[in-house]
Amino acid sequence: MRTSYYRKLLAALATVTLTVAVARAQTDPLPSWNDGSAKIAIVNFVQGTTTPSGANFVPVEERIATFDQDGTLWTEHPVYTQLMYIFDRVPALVKADPKLATVEPYKTVMSRNMEAISKLTMPDLEKLAGATLSGMTLDEFHAQVGAWLAQAQDPRWHKHFTDLTYQPMKELMAYLRANGYKTYIVTGGGQDFVRTYADATYGVPPEQIVGSAGAVKYVYPNGGTPHLVKLPKMIVNDNDAGKPEAIQLLIGRRPYASVGNSTGDQQMLEYTKGGTGLRLSMIVLHDDAAREYAYGPATGLPDSKIGTFTQGLYDEAMRSGWIVISMKKDWKTIFSWE
Amino acid sequence: MRTSYYRKLLAALATVTLTVAVARAQTDPLPSWNDGSAKIAIVNFVQGTTTPSGANFVPVEERIATFDQDGTLWTEHPVYTQLMYIFDRVPALVKADPKLATVEPYKTVMSRNMEAISKLTMPDLEKLAGATLSGMTLDEFHAQVGAWLAQAQDPRWHKHFTDLTYQPMKELMAYLRANGYKTYIVTGGGQDFVRTYADATYGVPPEQIVGSAGAVKYVYPNGGTPHLVKLPKMIVNDNDAGKPEAIQLLIGRRPYASVGNSTGDQQMLEYTKGGTGLRLSMIVLHDDAAREYAYGPATGLPDSKIGTFTQGLYDEAMRSGWIVISMKKDWKTIFSWE
Fold first, then answer.
1. Cβ pairs A/B, distance under 8 A
2. Among A12-26, A136-150, B97-111, where is mean pLDDT lowest?
3. Does residue B99 share a domain with residue B211?
4. Do B133 and B258 have their domain in common?
5. pLDDT confidence bin for A10, thresholds 50/70/90
6. What is the mean pLDDT of residues A233-237?
7. Residues A241, B217: C-beta atoms closer than 8 Å
8. What is the mean pLDDT of chain A?
9. Domain for residue A16, yes or no?
10. Which residues of B touch A277 (CB under 8 A)?
């Protein structure tokens, strides 16, 4: 009977659909995470905020997740990658203007004396940042950063910097996106610097990068098409309280989930957790010297100058119900090439 | 025979699919637009940038369209809606602090003498903006603006301001979105002001509003949860060259399509049209005094103080291949309630 055949066809299709759904549910979206409280908290958060009948359901358009970058999505030791870029640009500046070779702080950088370089002051670094990160068009800047990333290597593993991204965090971003979350990077690093590689590296497009931002100026070159030039003037300092403030400026919504790893992320994590309903604030603890680096309170080592995870921050995490992610215990894999 | 039946079923389904596709193709996505060069330019742009085999194909992630608001998406006469809001907030300020009633510029606003109000200087207006648009939390501000929009009416049609949005522009936004474009509002108006209603009114979410922005400050109230407070300090002036500059800050990509209506949009339209491939820059000419307002060069009237569409801008539009949208000729309907 035709009707019977049609029913069987529908039943067969339904079976296929069901099987796919079950297979999907059984595929671990976070294979690089060990079973433990961090992984459970993540899965509970995603299920809680995406179950339509649940008390903590969040409409898809409000699903915002924000991630710090340095020390949260990729390695920040021995120094921030952007700082390495700044130092590596100095020879090109000196070549273009040879008298800089005798002028500080260029002279120290050209000496390649790491001890002297590590003692450069904040005003020195700002001078170097201004000289290497501004004065060019956006297109020129992206080309310079892209060329550097394609060849530069880190001093420990001799990998490209974009290979020093944490596999578990990339899985977390993908898992959140698969559940309707828009993932943003909210970084103290340079917004235009991160925009150069974040889409290819993390799947985060330029319009979802919130970073420390220099001004740009719209200029009419002689006879040419108007374009934007980078100025040596910071207009967004995306650290500390600057993170929730920049989130308001660029996104205009309070995140439901945030991940950071230092005091520079404290206010973003507080702001996230301070919202109504189910919110997830997490902080990465660098406690794996063998596979990456160990610094911060859990290691008994003094706080690093950068990526500071202080005892006070740890205490706030405990008090406020933030999830502390132990790289050593929670991450099965740290880098994809391990 | 079962196989034959199955074939017939598939054929029937294919017919249904085809019919739907044909019906879709025949449904005009821009029913409020008259046939003419503006409508043709829009359809050609969308087809050109979304046809995968075409020379002007744009990957979906790069499809960015930016729209000015005042005079482009809704009526800006007799004064900007946000200015009406600012004036309407003054009585509440005076009630909270009665001595303001004798102090300028509050005294003039309280007089309801429109001639005197129209003569307020820019510093006066800035003082009023600071007093009415800052000092509160973001939540309080959105509540104040929302309550006002729910009751305030324009002086000519006695409609809510959100009803004075242009139906053809809403269709254009929807048409672009249906073709993978992300639509942004890029306005000289206040970013937080526009965010209050833009999602419900235009389908543009908070993170796609680029506006003139005041600073916010992350504060720890006594014993309460930290929150953001609006400060009387402008950090983004989203007018003129400030438009492409703010597009870079918030979006980080050059738009493929832009629509504006005044000299404040000139650089955004230039910047859009200055990109490679097929780009669409359009400018709304207010030439319909009967159905809306007439001002600017085509009307023979002197330029208005606000929403200035100068002869110079018109000449640049002609020279640069921008599409001039005549409200009178190109728009069948202006408002949805006509």
1. 93
2. A12-26
3. no
4. no
5. low
6. 95
7. yes
8. 91
9. no
10. none
Q: Nearest 5°: CA angle at B162, between B156 and B167?
A: 90
Residues B219 and B326 in one domain: yes
Choosing from B151, B171, B193, the residue where a domain stops is B151
CA distance A154 to B232: 45
CB contact under 8 A, A218 and B245: yes
Q: Does A125 touch chain B (CB under 8 A)?
A: no
**A6, A9, A251 member nearest B206 (Cβ):** A251
Smallest Cα distance from B263 to chain A, Å: 15
Instruction: Categorize the per-residue pLDDT at A304 as very low, low, confident or very high, splitting at 50, 70 and 90.
Output: very low
DSSP 8-class letter at B235: E
Contact between residue B194 and residue B69 where contact means Cβ atoms under 8 Å apart: yes
| B150 min Cα distance to partner chain A (Å) | 22
- Indicate if the pLDDT at residue B24 is higher than 60: no
- Which secondary structure element, helix H or strand E, spans residue A283, and what is its range? strand A280-285
Provide the β-strand partners of residue B294: B287
Q: What is the pLDDT of residues A244-273, one digit of tens each?
A: 999 999 999 999 999 999 999 999 999 999
**Contact between B227 and A274 using a beta-carbon 8 Å cutoff:** yes
Residue of B nearest to A320 (CA): B225
Residue A2 counted as domain residue: no
Residue A11 has pLDDT above 80, yes or no: no
Task: For chain B, say whether A2 makes contact (Cβ under 8 Å).
Answer: yes
d(CA A140, nearest CA chain B) in Å: 14
Is residue A173 located within the same domain as residue A208? yes
Q: How do residues A38-62 score in pLDDT, each as one tens digit?
A: 999 999 999 999 999 999 999 999 9
Last residue of a domain, one of A123, A151, A179: A151
* Domain interval for residue A109: 81-151
Distance CA B249, CA A211 (A): 9
Quote the CA–CA distance of A104 and A125 in Å, as a whole number: 11
Side-chain-side CA neighbours of residue A19 (13 Å): 6
Residue B184 belongs to a domain with what CATH number? 3.40.50.1000
- As for how many domains chain B has, the answer is 2
Q: Which of B144, B173, B151, B149 is nearest to B162 (CA)?
A: B149
Those residues with Cβ within 8 angstroms of residue A275's Cβ, 6 or more apart along the chain or in another chain: A254, A255, A256
Q: Which residues 220-259 of chain A have a CB within 8 Å of chain B?
A: 225-228, 235-236, 241, 244-245, 248-253
Same domain, B102 and B213: no
Instruction: Select from A199, A245, A271 the Cβ nearest to the Cβ of B217.
Output: A245
Give residue-wise pLDDT tens across range B209-220. Answer: 999 999 999 999
User: A213 contacts in B (CB within 8 Å)?
Assistant: 249
Which of A249, A266, A276 is most worth mutating to test chain B (most B CB atoms within 10 A of its CB)? A249
Mean pLDDT score, B131-158:
96
Question: Quick one: A123 and A177 in the same domain?
Answer: no
Q: Write out pLDDT tens, residues B179-203.
A: 999 999 999 999 999 999 999 999 9
Q: Does residue B256 lie within any of the structural domains?
A: yes
Residue B5 lies in a domain: no
**What would the pLDDT profile of B232-253 be if each residue is shown by its tens digit?**
999 999 999 999 999 999 999 9
Residues B204 and B286 in one domain: yes
pLDDT of residue B1: 44
* A227 and A87 in a common domain: no
Cβ-nearest to B228 among A6, A191, A244: A244
Residue B321 has pLDDT above 70, yes or no: yes
User: Quick one: closest CA in B to A231, which residue?
Assistant: B245
Task: Answer yes or no: is pLDDT of A12 > 70.
Answer: no
Residue ranges of alpha helices (H) inside B203-325 are 242-250, 266-273, 311-320
| Residue B280 structure tokens | 């669409």
